[in-house]
Amino acid sequence: MSALTAPKSPAGVRHGPARGPATDGRAAFARAFRRNVSAHGFLIGAVLCFGFFSWYPMVREFFLAFQKTEDGRTVWVGLDNLRYIANDPAFWQAWRNTLLFTGLALLLGFVVPFLVAVLLNELRHGQGYLRLLVYLPVMLPPVASVLLFKYLYDPGYGLFNAAFGAVGLPEQQWLQSSDTAMLCIVLASTWMNMGGATLIYLAALQGIPGELYEAAELDGAGLWRKIWHVTVPQTRLILSLMLLLQIIATMQVFTEPFLLTGGAGPEGSTTTVVYLIYQYAFSFNNYGAAAALGLVLLVLLAAFSAAYTRLSRAGDEG
Amino acid sequence: MMISSRLRTTRTFPRPSAHRRTLAVAAAAATLATLLAACGTSSSDDDGGDDSKPAAADAGAPLDPKTKVTLTIDCMPPATKAAELKEWKEDVAEFNKTYPNVTIQGKQTDPCLEPPRFTAMLKAKSQPDVFYTYFTDLQQVLDNDGAEDISAYVNDKTLPALKGIDPGVMDVMKKDGKQYGLPYSNYTMGLLINRKLFEEAGLDPNTPPATWEEVRTAAKKIAALGKGVAGYGEYSAANTGGWHFTAATYGLGGEVVSADGTKAAFNDETGKQVVENLRAMRWDDDSMGKTQLLKWGDLQKQMAADKLGMFLAAPDDITYMVQNLKAKYENFGMGPIPGAKATLFGGNDYMIKKGSSPDKIKAAIAWLNFKFLTPGKGQFDWARTKADGLPVGLPQPNLFTGDAKTQDDATRGENSTMPVENFKAFMDNPVPGKAEPPKAQEIYKVLDNVMSGVLTNKNADVAKLLSTAETQVNQVLANQ
Amino acid sequence: MAAVEIRQRTLISPAQLARRRGRITYWIVLALVLGLFTVIFLGPLYWMVSGGLKSTQEVIQTPPTAVPHTVEPGNYSDAWQLMDLARLLGNTLFYAFGALAFQLVFDVAAAYSLSKLRPVFGKVILGAMLATLMIPATVLIVPQYLTVIDVPIVERNLLNSPWAIWLPSVTNAFNIFLLKRFFDSIPRELMDAAAMDGASAARTLWSVILPMSRPILGVVSIFAVVGVWKDFLWPMLTLPDPAAQTLNIGIYSLSTGVPLNTLIAALTIASVPTLLFFLVFQRNIMSGLTAGGLKG
């Protein structure tokens, strides 16, 4: 975070009485009161927004998950909504798919940008151009990129099968097969999003002191060992933060499958948890089920984040 | 325009619940009593219902022409549809000749209904006095307590064409015997064909295939044209695959859900025939193109670009292709759904906001009657439609039966702006309409997997796909 | 920047590169990387531009053509008219910069208050805000949607109004976190000095804190704008009216209803403004992003 801290002022001279000599208690109270009023005045806008659009919905999710509205009446239904989603044949499939997506996205979306950054960092020519290329897709409207990929993936008139055919590879079904659909979604998503992560890693790589590599070389380390023993540990903090962010982001994947395979995909192979929430709420008008599934995802992700932060903190200390 | 109704068919459906069904009998009896009281007795009879609202006693009487009332109503044509808007205004003016004190305040909503907006509107109870819904929306409206029961207001006097309206259509807007809406338009599904490709493939475009064997043979010939042309196309995503599976199954006389609505009923010979036929066309004949996971809108694009020979569709898909995809009416034809035992239907209607005064309800019914349900008037004034440069001749809306239908078809034919003979096979072989199954969207979601399975997996096991779907649909139906 | 500075030592040692074999390997790798990256990142874009020029039939023909047989620039004008790009882009910018303004005002004020003014319950409030970081937005999509269509207390329906985008965008805990961390690092003495001069809290924020905070404000601004630019599900639900739609939703709506070649042309057109913007300001954007990069 070094880039994000303000310059330190010359220390030493202490300006003014931060804690002045004790004055009369009432004046102190009045001052504290005034300070609090103005402090809360600064806070009020954000707090109201959080209240209405974040905290209240969070509480409401709990309520909705245990309620049902029928014939204009809202009633408590206990665990009915949870039972409903657990009995939905798509429930477990959606979780499997989401985890598969997250796993693939980590393999590709997490490792690839890092390796690309390491590679680019070594190049002494054309780096500006390459960085531009990698970042280009990030600037496209996401829906435009996704729809472009849908066109490229088409097994009939798409570019990919034409290219495969040209070099003598067998034609693929791409998005149209339950075996490859999820992988294709991840590939498209990686193409679209890797630019941001690559640039962040590049910046981190440039902060690694060269002497460390020299020292490693003196120990006779080869290329991979240098990456493993110098590059990775030196960027560990940023890597671990990006990993967490990426897992949270990929668990909520919606746009790509929604646009590429119509949501469910071949034999339901791209149905994700968030797509299921969307279906419950906006196709079946079953807000109770949608909230219940949202609640499950919420609890899981919150638990995961907490455990992850704790573990990585323990790792830092250990 | 009903374009979005197809998009919409892919959502919402009544969730029948057990406790409600037990109430049904009592409610139906009560309604019947009200109806009898309303129709059979004159308003002077005050012994009748002392508990009912003062005006309810004469609910069955038509609107008093002197009544002063303002009605808000949505789905008025937008400015971009100049001709339709002009007709709307003319109709309001003519309506006001009879009812000078009724003010019709139209709201331009384009498209007429969008699911998130509709949901929001019901939740916030901000719908206009008379509001547009799809046939499949009734339960959602009732869950939000959004519509008035108008049973007592609907009769031969307030709705002279009532006898001629297809009772199946009227039933869609009924719940527990109570009427909640009046139809605006409807469609029944058939087999849409591309005449140009039929001719190129040496097939007769005037006799569309009537059975699935014929569809398969024709598809093979059309696909043989090459250059990415597919003979037959089918959906398999966004719940539209399940929707079409249902349509095809109905066509063969099959059922998707048992009569009591508790069990899946498609895992039988009929269901197998539907899926097996698709498998053969997709993989043995390769006549369905490589691109699958299609949803509403995709097949239309292919057909408008002369890359697709046939698919199951409603007549207004043709309008959609002409208006949005630059296709020509002459290029298309329609036949009845293969098998022709029954056909899936759908449509849209208007409901009246809960809590409206009896005068408002009467005025609303008078307006809906005039604008949408009178042969030769309003939307059925075909001579005017033609004069305004709008298309005439599609077999939709198809609200009437018997004499009313014959009469309407005749004027439609006289004023047609397109070669109606292309739809002759569809018109001459009317197939009885059949509504969507309960929990339609949830079932369609499951059936999508059958469709995407058979269309994307070469080695798909048809029997297994169907039995898995059967288990899952049973689960869905049992899941309350 | 890198061109001027003396290059820092990286993974591969300069000695190794200086050798003949090292040099050859380097040039081969460079050529491969340049070629491969160009194909991977520009190939799809070429396919997009050329696809938009093909005829309705050609664009869905199997096998596809590498170069359009019949060039139909008319697709682009059709797409332009159908899509009304100017309006969609205008809407998106309106939402994005509105969200930016709201975040700059509310989030900066909140971070300032939490960092420097330390009100009672400040810790609790900060904790409650940061807790939302653990809970991704989409999980709350349903209750949030139900809240927006009928905001409690004020009883307003925000559907189709820019407020539905702006106000929820303020609940960006990550930005508040970044801002607060930055403000924390500003020495207290500067504040005290300002207080000595009789400056109010607002005055101090304006004339002491903000001028020092340019880098972080830049980062937060990029996050705020990109957040709105990339969003799909939320604007799809809350802005159903075609006149109020964002670029993403406009393209999506269009995708169901026009021939493929027109759609591809529309995708191209929609990509042009931001690509141009990016190419012109790439230096600033890149350095802004890397400055925002959290170094390990």
TrEMBL record, chain A:
Record GO cellular component, one term: plasma membrane
Residues covered by the ABC transmembrane type-1 domain: 95-308
GO BP of this protein: transmembrane transport
Gene: araP_2
CDD domains cross-referenced by the UniProt entry: TM_PBP2
Chain spans, region Disordered: 1-22
Protein name: L-arabinose transport system permease protein AraP
Membrane topology designation: Multi-pass membrane protein
Originating organism: Streptomyces smaragdinus
Subcellular location: Cell membrane
SUPFAM superfamilies: MetI-like
Family in the record: Belongs to the binding-protein-dependent transport system permease family.
Membrane-spanning ranges: 37-56, 99-120, 132-153, 180-204, 235-254, 287-308
InterPro entries in alphabetical order: ABC_transporter_permease (IPR051393), MetI-like (IPR000515), MetI-like_sf (IPR035906)
Key words of the record: Cell membrane, Membrane, Transmembrane, Transmembrane helix, Transport
TrEMBL record, chain B:
Keyword Acetylation: no
Ranges where the record places region Disordered: 41-63, 394-416
Signal peptide: 1-37
InterPro entries in the cross-refs: Bact_solute-bd_prot1, SBP
Low complexity bias (residue ranges): 54-63
Keywords: Signal
Entry annotated with the keyword Magnesium: no
Protein name: Sugar-binding protein
Species annotation: Streptomyces smaragdinus
UniProtKB/TrEMBL annotation, chain C:
Record GO biological process: transmembrane transport
Keywords from the named record: Cell membrane, Membrane, Transmembrane, Transmembrane helix, Transport
InterPro entries linked to this entry: MetI-like, MetI-like_sf
Gene Ontology cellular-component terms listed: plasma membrane
PROSITE patterns: ABC_TM1
Compartments (UniProt record): Cell membrane
Protein name in UniProt: L-arabinose transport system permease protein AraQ
